[in-house]
Amino acid sequence: MIDSLYLFIALALLAEILGTLGGFGSSLFFIPLATYFLDFDSALGITALFHVFSNLSKIALFRKGIDKTLLLHMGLPAILFVVFGAYLSAFINGQILELVMALFLIVLATLFLVKKTIRISPSTTNAILGGASSGFISGILGTGGAIRGLTLATYQLPIAVFIATSALIDLGIDCSRTVIYYYNGYIHTKDLYLLPILFLVSVLGTYIGKKILERVAEQHFRVLVLGMILLTGLSTLVKLLLP
Hints:
This protein is mostly helical. 77% of the residues lie in helices and 0% in strands.
């Protein structure tokens, strides 16, 4: 039990560091890793709470500015659609959601690795669509940061503004879905002992990611981060398919 807890903490810290480096947010890595220790519904619930800590840490450590226009255009649709996605998650089998998530990660990582120049035009319409899509997927699968990151990347924001704006949008998403997940029964008293641990992990992981980004250009980590996303998706798929 103790060994499993140490492994859980180590993987959560890795997810937080990679989420900071890649700009996707830690849930992209943490959700599939958490399903090795918790059932999928419980993983959704604990990830939403962990991500609140994670985003507060990013806002505090990357507080160089917020793009208020993008916050409005992406944030409001994201909050609206995350509620819809979180509500629907109660009506779909957890294993099916886990399979969809694994395929989503594999396709997404492969697409970005093969199509290195993939871009979305920086328009108001695409900002709204990107926010709505990331919110809906965050609600139903627990992670939609890759779509939000891809959309924000088109605006060529300074890295601190990029991360702080993304984190503030994500904070609205997490607060909204946490309420729905609670009413869906995904947040359990027996898992709450993890919260102080995950709070410390979120602060430490964000700090380490920030220090790395100060020394090395972010694009050097792109292939590494996408490779980790692909590996996470493949390992989740194998876990589901093996008897």
